[in-house]
Design goal:
single chain, about 400 residues, alpha+beta, 5-stranded antiparallel beta sheet, elongated, RING-type E3 ubiquitin transferase
Amino acid sequence: MQAIVKVFEDNHIDPPWSYLAVFAIDAVMVLVIAFCVREIRRARRAAVEADVVIKPKAPLFEGARFVAGTVEFAQGEFEAVRVTISQEGSEESDKNNNKSHTWTETERETLARPFYLRHDTGVRVRVEPPDDVLLVDTLDQKEWLHSSKRKLRAELLPGERVVVEGRLHRAPDPEEVGETAGYRQAATTGWRMKPSPQKGMHVSTESLSRRHELRARAFFWTCVWVGLLGLAMLIPLGTYRARLLLGENVVATYLGKRTFERTSKGKTTMHHGVDIRYESPPGTVRFSRGIEVDEDDYLELPAGPGEIWLRRVPGFSTATALGQGSSVWVPPWVAAAVLAGIAVYRAYRTHTYRRWYEGRLVEKDKGPLPPQTNERFLADDPVALEGRRARALRRERAAKHVEPIPLE
């Protein structure tokens, strides 16, 4: 008795490898979504915890990690903390002459001077930032050096509300002195904020929760995109899943094998195929001619008629394929794998994204480099600088209940 022929179509991954191949990309998508959900939950939990840390009118205490207040300049100082980033611009064009440009950071300079925080309880806290202080602020100042060179700056200004992370302790304050019998004595004890031995110092004009909120939002949209990619991935593998979930192994009639030629773009190639007859649904005879198989399988096939295994999907003839079990066609599997790869890349980029104060600043945008403007930093603009100094003195005097000087 002649054995039932078992052969799979050309460019198909045979079971059980087909199950493993599809399961792998399904698992990748599930893991990426799970990773995004975990990061969303972590970020939201961190945002809630960050909001709890700062209580505006909570009393100061030795060893406190966070202090919030309003910036005031120290005596004789007109700077607190500022970060200046130098950038060089470049233009690129694609094959369709569509332009894009990139600003790349070439240098970063940080200036840190002692300043004060006016706590909500009225107490002044002297902040002594290190040279490597991390400033979390907006790069809202710009100065052009050349059409392809510019500088950006973030700077603490008097009156800004900030949160400082470091270590608070009691120490003499050089701006707070005591007097006895008309003679000036040594500086009195006040509050000083210095860098933490483990984490240094962070100065933020944003709430501590904002960074976590932005991260949660970014991962939420990444999760949405990954979900859409997962749905799109179902399309190319639709016939495989139909064979897997709805198909049944049946014995069809093997009519014989043959070769045939196909011409594409002026090139003729030889193909190998088989002809079969089967019923789908039962009672309805169907013929499939020239079902392609690879050359090795073709050579092993018998020349005469016989029986052959078929994975039949009732009512879905497109999903019906040769063989026992569910094989998967390579091209749609590759397409699905590419979608899974895009999902992984999107999650990776979201996870590794850093704002300007966390890493090297590189900005990309469409179109040519923007035209050069006459913008200048506040410190380089005499009128703006004098106005800022006068406002700073006014705020300091007002905080000490002293009549402010008039603005000129």
